């Protein structure tokens, strides 16, 4: 992360920036460029898609949650809630 001066540089490296077709004053932006590391890009996109739904505990995860301390459970739940809220704010703005 230290090798990038800004989040824009990181997104450009991963290929998560919109493609652009420009001629004169006409600017058309398309889908993401898909340049860069495909595995990292895939992981990031999939992780974002998981946060579009409200956080909940499924049957398969309940077993794992019972094995950790309540403090760890609280941290995980707070992180899930924050990421879901962030996704919804960005989606509401059209991002």
Automatic annotation (TrEMBL):
Pfam families: Transposase_20 (PF02371). Residues 1-52 form the Transposase IS116/IS110/IS902 C-terminal domain. InterPro entries: Transposase_20. This is Transposase. It comes from Bradyrhizobium elkanii.
